[in-house]
Amino acid sequence: MIIREATFQDLNEIWNLTVELIKDAKKYYKKFKIDKKTIKEIRVSVKNTLHDKNSRYYVAIHGGKIIGYILGVIKKRSKNKPEFPDYIDALERKYGYASDIFVVKKFRKLGVGTRLMTALIDWFKRQNVKLVEGHIISKNKSAIKLVKKLGLKEFEKVMWKKIK
Ligand SMILES: CC(C)(COP(=O)(O)OP(=O)(O)OC[C@H]1O[C@@H](n2cnc3c(N)ncnc32)[C@H](O)[C@@H]1OP(=O)(O)O)[C@@H](O)C(=O)NCCC(=O)NCCS
Prior knowledge:
The protein is of the alpha+beta class. It has a single domain (2-149), classed as Gcn5-related N-acetyltransferase (GNAT) (Aminopeptidase, 3-Layer(aba) Sandwich), CATH 3.40.630.30. The chain has four helices and five strands, in the order βααβββαβα. Strands 1-2-3-4-5 form a five-stranded mixed sheet, sandwiched between helices. It starts with a strand and ends in a 15-residue tail after the last helix. The model has no long low-confidence stretch (mean pLDDT 93). The protein binds coenzyme A. Residues 21, 24, 101-103, 108-114, 136, 140-143, 145-146, 149 line the site of coenzyme A.
């Protein structure tokens, strides 16, 4: 298995896996729509992301096929926001956002996700990014375990209750 940066040739495979990721996320977001229109839009979004110099896909290849991918985006916080979390200092206004991560089911728990995340963090480091961040649904134990093993810490929880 190899991990490498994605190229434009990977567009369709990443597109398919992104659709799978969204189908998987329906466990948490019941109202996610995966109709034909959405699927088409995802392809456009993946294509645009492949062109964006602040974004990077890394892919895991096995038997000539992509069996997992990760997407990272370099973002910048605006200067005068008072609501910065306390772990952020001036240097870290530029930060790496770990966005999608997906591994095909039969290849899970073999370290692929960890290798993808490590490759992304290495790219962030080469871009002089000093902080990596991401959002995870509390119920997604596997994703939480993966990032915690890599040293990421939890900062906030969204609390909710339906009220009548
Ligand atoms: C989250 C995901 C990317 C993890 O990929 P992976 O290749 O299985 O991850 P790894 O094999 O590197 O696992 C990292 C750690 O998490 C643990 N882990 C992974 N899946 C687990 C599970 N279902 N239950 C318990 N532990 C799990 C692994 O055992 C490993 O810990 P260990 O080294 O102590 O054994 C994969 O489960 C996935 O694609 N899920 C669906 C998409 C998703 O939820 N993406 C995240 C959105 S934020």
